[in-house]
Amino acid sequence: MEDQDVTGYLPANPYLTNIHLSLGRKNLTTNRIQMSTQLLKSNPTKVWGLTAVILFALSMVLNYGSLLIQPVQDRGEGQIRTLVNPAGYAFSIWTLIFFAILWASWRIFKYAGPPSQALYRATVALVFAAIANCLWVPVSFGGNQLLIMLDLMANVLPLAIAYCYLVDFLADAPKSYRSLLWPVSVFMGWTSVATIVTIASFLQILGYNPDVLIAMTWAVALTVVVLLLGLFFLYKNDIAFPLTLAWALVALAVQHWWVEPLGYVYVSASVLMVVAIAYQRFVMKRAIR
Predict the structure, then answer these.
(1) Do 174 and 92 sit in the same domain of this protein?
(2) Is 220 helix (H, G, I), strand (E, B) or coil?
(3) Mean pLDDT, all residues of the chain
(4) pLDDT digit string (tens) for 101-118?
(5) Worst-scoring range by mean pLDDT, 47-51, 83-87, 278-282?
(6) Are 104 and 174 part of one and the same domain?
């Protein structure tokens, strides 16, 4: 009688089965890591997008952590009182900015469309803006208005570059990606206002202390510039940027309501901005349809 293979009738060894399962899971995990690494190497936009997510998250932690030590309006551009300092509540817009820019960076990281040189360059610029934003916390605590001004400029410039490249990218991208633009627009709008405030503070440190009439004239001139800038972006079908400027103008009106007629100028400019936005958003679009 020939020997028969009875291994198939033997009960399975649970220890060996667990080893095989563990090895299988380990191999699967290793393969996924290798595939992810290869994908990152082949798509540099993802690398920069992930870097932007990490740096903006770090900036958010640093900024909110620093609030436990000193409120943001009591340092940086808020240290020296000028006629272009906004009310303290206006700085709450940073919450919107941080979450919005994190969301936009994450969407760029998850982008699975065809390679885009414009999106790649926009993402690189966002990384530089994130680095400058991280540096703002230690710089603002130092109280050096020159360094603060340079850091804010280092925020605005890469944001403007990212904005321009995103506009180029969105010209051919699916409509679902159009929402990538407004977080950058709000971020750029607020840092532009902060830069103006810091420049005014820096001039005051250098000894430029004009009388009330000249200071009011400069404030009105800056208001006109801000208003025209907002209307220009509105003409380009960007609503987020002028809305951010309107938010800043209202905060300026609240802070300087006692300085007549400057408070009325700030209110009039913000109302004009909102009316222009509403007209472009509802009246013009209906006429086009």
Answers:
(1) yes
(2) helix
(3) 81
(4) 999 999 999 998 888 999
(5) 83-87
(6) yes
Spell 101-111 as b/e; 16+ CB within 10 A means b: bbebbbbbbeb
Query: Encoding tokens for residue 138?
Result: 């230690």
Under a CB-based contact definition with an 8 Å cutoff, are residues 239 and 279 in contact? no
Alpha carbon separation from 148 to 31, 188, 209, 272 (Å, rounded)? 47, 16, 20, 31
Q: Do 129 and 226 sit in the same domain of this protein? A: no
Residue 286 has pLDDT above 70, yes or no: no
| Residue 186 shares a structural domain with residue 53 | yes
Is 1's pLDDT higher than 70?
no
pLDDT of residue 60: 93
Cβ neighbours of residue 3 under 8 Å, at least 6 residues apart? none
- What angle do helix axes 262-278 and 240-255 make, rounded to 10 degrees? 160
- Listed residue (207, 190, 210) closest to 83, CA to CA: 210
- Please check whether residue 11 lies inside any domain of the structure: no
Report pTM. 0.79
User: What gap in Å lies between CA 148 and CA 34, rounded to an integer?
Assistant: 43
Q: Does 163 lie in the same domain as 276?
A: no
Q: What is the DSSP string of 114-169?
A: S--HHHHHHHHHHHHHHHHHHHHHHHHHHT-HHHHHHHHHHHHHHHHHHHHHHHHH
Domain for residue 17, yes or no? no
What is the arithmetic mean of pLDDT over 2-21? 53
Residues 222 and 261 in one domain: yes
Kindly provide the b/e burial profile for residues 239-278, where b requires at least 16 CB atoms within 10 angstroms of the residue's own CB: bbbbbbbbbbbbbbbbbbeebeebbebbbebbeebbebbe
Residue 159: give the domain boundaries: 41-209
73-83 pLDDT, tens per residue? 555 444 556 77
